[in-house]
User: Fold this.
Amino acid sequence: MLAMLETNAYIQQFPYLGLFILLILGTLGLPFPEDAILILAGFLVANRTIKLIPTFIAIYSGLLLTDFILFSFGKRYGRRLVENKRFQKILTAGRLAKLEDKFERWGILVIFLGRHLLGLRAQIFLVAGVMRMPWKKFLIADAVSALVTIALWSGLGYLGGQSIQTLRKNAKGIELFVTLILLISIGIMMVIKYWKPKGKRGSAYNAFSRS
Assistant:
């Protein structure tokens, strides 16, 4: 996440290209998680740092391209992929067998559901290529599921940005409200402590002292 924050200045200079490149770099193994980039995009839209339509085009095309890159690797290397040092950390022989079974049973539904599971996304795209899924079929399934991903994570980022904006606009009102509640609370405590009949206060004191 620290790396994401450090790239914020770069994104402000080249916002749409920056988001697109971050998605590509994340696919290559650099510490730029896809979900974090989408949340950042939604946050920047909410703060009016970037515009909605160009942002959507940049991140949507970035998602489709990165997913297709993984699919192409799987299609090119096939089962030899699990022997490649670059991909052994992502996809093991055991995981390949399990995902192949899922694809046999559920087909493209694996892509619809799997891309929203952290840690399985890259594996699923690679296995789709290994199993020689037609690229048009893969792109259609991925394009639809990517819309859900963008709506989910960018939507969360947008709501977070809107909440911060609301807090900034109403900061004085919130501060006044909190101060008023604090004063009322202090007043109630003072009343409870001192607004008692003397006899009751004395009996309470004597009972306490005896104990």
The first helix runs from residue 2 to 6. Residues 1-5, 199-211 have pLDDT under 50 and may be disordered. The chain has twelve helices and no strands. Residues 2-169 form one domain.
